[in-house]
Amino acid sequence: MIITYICPKCCRNLFKTGNQLKCPVGHSYDISSEGYVNLLLGNKRSGLHGDTKEMIRSRRRFLQLGLYFPIVDNLTRLISGLAVPRSAFSLLDAGCGEGYYAGNLKSALTLNGLNCDIYGTDVSKDAVKSAAKQYKDIDFSVSSVNKLPFADLQFDFLLSLFAPLAEQEFFRVLKKGGYLITVSPGARHLWTLKEQIYDHPKENPPPSFKSSLFIESSRYSVSYNIFLPENSIIRDLFDMTPYRYNTSESDYKRLSKLDSLTTEASFEFCIFKKYSDTGGNYVEIY
Ligand SMILES: C[S@@+](CC[C@H](N)C(=O)[O-])C[C@H]1O[C@@H](n2cnc3c(N)ncnc32)[C@H](O)[C@@H]1O
Ligand SMILES: [Zn+2]
């Protein structure tokens, strides 16, 4: 199964010619030596930047420890249950970061006997470069979720894992009958860690994505404790989250006193279905 990329300048389909993707008008985009394609226009001017190299390195080191592997496990179970048996399907990880979930899902779904083409896209070129180097069986691109470089109605699944949501674009690229799966931090995710840093830690708000286009079909939480045996691991975990940039230097310094820590990991899974190409107004008829 081949997914069609579209030209970010004129929205016509892109075709592979040598080491480039080209549209009929002549706009062309190089496929990098790592195998990804940059389809983001004017990111400097638009102010979009995504995660920094430091955040990406911290996330890569932390995720490789496997402490968030239960997310991969849950997604594998969910997708295996929803996919049509014995037929190939396509999945887009939108805001894929350094590719951990896309890469590990590909292996896990393949082990389950499923034939899945996985695509990953992120606005951070550094993240996508790192992803493409590590996970060779995934197609990666640089783009914003607000302007996805894919033709309409192509994906069976769309994942948004701790990443920005773009309802209209997700709806456009998903097939009718396709699923959007979001994962976000639970109310007390990393609570004990937050208690060490903040005088008054706040719980995370519940998932707030309300859609007029998709129908929410289910949601559930997954919570467990993780043991962080070293200061460098605690720091990587903290540094890969948006907390890093919303924390004062004096609060951040409290991290250096921690040699090890057990803290909660808590995740909210939400599953939405695209019932029609026009969205909304879905009435179940028995
Ligand atoms: C918290 S990270 C999660 C990364 C990955 N999904 C994971 O869980 O490991 C959020 C990601 O969203 C990306 N991002 C932020 N704004 C974006 C946008 N407008 N379009 C695409 N990706 C974006 C960031 O670059 C970053 O990689
Ligand atoms: Zn074009």
What's the CATH topology name?
Rossmann fold
CATH superfamily: Vaccinia Virus protein VP39
What is the overall pLDDT average? 93
Note the main sheet: 8 strands, mixed
Q: How would you sum up this structure in a few lines?
A:
With 286 residues, the protein is α/β, with parallel strands linked by helices. It contains 9 helices and 11 strands. The protein has one domain: Vaccinia Virus protein VP39 (Rossmann fold).
Secondary structure topology:
Elements: E1 15-17, E2 20-22, E3 28-30, E4 37-38, H1 43-46, H2 53-63, H3 69-82, E5 89-94, H4 100-111, E6 116-122, H5 125-134, E7 139-142, E8 155-161, H6 167-173, E9 174-185, H7 191-197, E10 215-228, H8 231-239, H9 249-253, E11 261-273
Helix pairs in contact: 2-8, 3-4
The structure holds S-adenosylmethionine and zinc ion (ZN).
Residues 48, 50-51, 59, 95-97, 100-101, 122-124, 127, 144-146, 161-164 line the site of S-adenosylmethionine.
